[in-house]
Write a structure and sequence with these properties.
Elements (H helix, E strand, L loop, with lengths): L10 H4 L5 H4 L6 H21 L4 H24 L6 H17 L6 H4 L6
Helix pairs in contact: 3-4, 3-5
Length: 117
């Protein structure tokens, strides 16, 4: 059963507009942006479930989510799109937002250190 954003415990992330800039740009197919949003929402559920106590524990979770974005890149190419500068910034900002919403002062580059986009 897919987990829904409104089921998250953290109120900040429950009402947040993930990947807003990507949804507003027709260059990015909405169904693929939906998959990206699902990765970020899934990350939130993982954080709530595992409750990382340290930045290193948080980074393990964000790196796993980043790897899922790496896998998604191929689907963007197939749809004549790609995770380019605007998308990279939107995704990175959302990772930073998630970290902050859960009380972490994390390095944005470290959050997405495993990225290939």
């Amino acid at each position: 059963m897919a987990k829904k954003q409104e089921d998250l415990k953290n109120e900040l992330v429950r009402s947040y507009s993930f990947l807003k800039e990507m949804y507003e740009d027709s260059y990015f197919p909405s169904k693929l942006v939906d998959k990206g949003k699902a990765i970020l929402v899934g990350l939130c559920f993982k954080i709530e479930q595992e409750q990382p106590k340290s930045l290193n524990e948080l980074y393990e979770l964000t790196h796993a989510a980043t790897d899922k974005f790496n896998d998604l890149q191929e689907e963007f190419f197939d749809a004549d799109s790609e995770i380019e500068t605007g998308a990279r910034e939107a995704i990175a900002e959302d990772f930073a937002f998630v970290a902050k919403a859960y009380g972490f002062e994390a390095d944005i580059e470290e959050l997405i250190a495993t990225r290939e986009w």
